[in-house]
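Quick entry between incubations.
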Amino acid sequence: MDQQQAPRFFIHGPSPFARLIVFSTLSLALMASDSKSSYLHQVRQLLVTAIHPLHFVAFSPFKLANDVQSYFVAQQSLKNEIEVLKKKNLYQGVQLQSLAMFKNENDNLRTLLETSKAGAHSSQLAEIMYTGRDPFTHKVIVNLGAKNKILAGQAVVDSAGVIGQVTRVFTYTSEVTLLTDKDLLIPVQVERNTLRAIVFGNGRNNSVNLPYLPANVDIKKGDKLVTSGIDGIYPPGLAVAIVESVNTNVRSPFAQIVAIPAAGTQNHRQVLILTRDTNNLVAKDIEKVLGADAQNPLNKKEKVSRRNHGPT
Amino acid sequence: MLKIRSTKKKKSQEEIMDQHSRRRVYFSLLAALLLQLLPFSGLLLQIKPDFLLLALLFWLLRAPHICNVGIAWTAGIIMDLVSGDLFGQNALAYALTAFLALMYQRRLILFTVLQQSAYVFLLLLVNQAILLMLKSFSGAEYFGWVYFMPSFTGILFWYAVLHSRYSFNFMAHK
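Done. Structure below.
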């Protein structure tokens, strides 16, 4: 009978060391499979959907405070805002009239050149829910997901320019990697002289780099970088960044070019997610090549060489 | 007979107590997770302590029969989901930290608050170091000592909470 009353201060079950071994093996296996294959993606999606209510609870006080604050905005400031918006509308209306004319002209010229028409991009308005948990990756979570037909790879912009790209889609939310993230690259053109380059996120400051350009490259401070559109992801002509400094070093054959993103990557709540532009010929071409490669991966090399010699 | 009944009764009472404290542990861990999920940004995000790990360590030291390596690992998996990291990164770091906490748990509960805090600080640093190592395997960059800010704020938070008047009363009551 005394044995029934086992003292409770001993830890029951397997020893901590045994548990540690089991769980660390499990997490190592999870890490390996998550980094090398994508079959855990479904599981992740399911679990993220499951913990969505927790997010909702955590945000509700902030949302409530925000709502209350916006309810009590002074009438005067609203009036001022309307005034400013009306003026802006007027200016933009005038610009829009000329734009329509230019668009017609451009379409006509393009038909003459037998190239594809630069289609208007449809887009979805998304709201940034929160910035990523890790302060050293530049990612934000927006409130549209697979339910809203968002696909990974779509470009995300605001009124001033490119913000980044959708990198992961969950059921109700999706993850947008900002262009300042170290892992995001965007093909750009210098607006002044149509020089092509690739913008790399810096990762540290709110800035981007243009590495691997020769020291004598024709880029000056204040140059505007716009998307070139040759990737088939970002439609051409969107502002990406303004060149901040160009330094050349005797020891390095490359110029060190730093640019500041045109879009407000830090201070926006609403962004636009552009739907993939299927009218784009380049995008179609890329898709075609990818599809063919997927069908017969062995002929890949041959195809590439053929493509390289093709147009001559 | 009477003796048997009395022991049985005692045991069931103990079980109820156990269930009670179990519920308290889970509830506080959930609250810590919610704190962790608060939509901070900018500087606040950089200095935000790891609330979930602090809550875990608190219960690991005080109720090791409820809060064990497995619970820590599960919390880590949830953190992986929340932060969008590779599956298992936070889980591994939390499990290792929990193990280190349990290793000296018997001795730690005899320490003073200051001594305990020193060890907890060490554990927080170890957790971040493990995470940094795992992240650098998958291509992350080291950002200097600012990376370890959450450990410093975390230990300040820990010390402040354990030294507050309320918790003093709570412990005396216990």
